[in-house]
Hints:
Blueprint: H1 4-23, H2 36-69, H3 87-114, E1 123-125, E2 128-129, E3 137-144, E4 147-152, E5 157-160, E6 162-166, E7 171-177, E8 182-185, E9 193-195, E10 201-205, E11 211-217, E12 229-235, H4 237-250, E13 252-254, H5 256-262, E14 272-277, H6 281-286, H7 297-306, H8 309-314, H9 326-335
Parallel strand pairs: 3-7, 6-12, 13-14
Antiparallel strand pairs: 1-2, 3-4, 4-5, 5-14, 7-10, 8-9, 8-11, 11-12
Helix pairs in contact: 2-3
Amino acid sequence: MxxxxxxxxxxxxxxxxxxxxLGGCSKAVVLNPAGDVAAQQGDLVMVATYLMLLIIVPVILxxxxxxxxxxxSNTEAExxxxxxxxxxxxxxxxxxxxxxxxxxxxxxxxxxxxxxxYRPLDRIDxxxxxxxxxxxxxxxxxxxxxxxxxxxxxxxxxxxxxxxAPVNRPIHFKITSTTTMNAFYVxxxxxxxxxxxxxxxxxxxxxxxxxxxxxxSTHYSGPGFSHMNFKFHGLTEAGFNDWIAKAKSEGGTLDxxxxxxxxxxxxxxxxxxxxxxxxxxxxxxxxxxVEEGQMCMHTMMAIDKAGGQSYMRAKGLNLSxxxxxxxxxxxxxxxLEPGVAxxxxxxx
Length: 348
């Protein structure tokens, strides 16, 4: 049987090798990201860790100290079997954790509002405020089975499993999903944001360094989930314009017919670009009415807001049963008063 002295040396060598291997990691993305929003979130992790260590480290040191001081062989240690209370110890034990909880609560409250993903950015990085004349780049994101579709409404293009943006320009993401709940995450850019069918979440972020970064899904959505990744390119303004021009020249057409083929589940889907995109397509995806004859969700909500079936009867449509059938969708939509359908807001 091996003695403890015989295995002590190899054990220390193994531990040292493991620490060296961990230290060789070139980049801990969460703590060293390329985007300002992610950097602020990483700072929060470190601040919370340091505050908790203010309690953890003294407790660990005190544990070793008391174990050493009151060891069996130390006959000079004070022994008081009648001890039951110490006001000083009670103050120390309760005041320090309470102070840390208060500080953490204040930091959490402030950062929750400051880093709200819906809140437009007010700075590019910790040294550069956002100029008043800067317009964010809008990107509409659709989580599919099992791929990502990105619309660039201002540029008139769309891509699959490839995302790009110029450095130091705010990005406004509008995010939805086709079938199942998913999560959009670029660790270098910002935190994870959920994507849900029939709803739109938002994210405001910025990338500060050129490079190619990993984007992924962080919510299990089926057998193709583990390969539901994409590349995010941080480019110069000129490089981004070239990327847009390439998508327009080489890409195909993305309309409702093409989309219905694209939305079918696939795994390891290759990068795909579309240079001619139906400008209303994202709107119909969000409102779940891409197929002809489907009533859009915002239309249903507008009908409910106007009074439901009583409103439809007042418009001369005495429909039996469910008014949201595909057969009646065209008649109901046509009967809506101008502007009624646009009143519904479908966001989370």
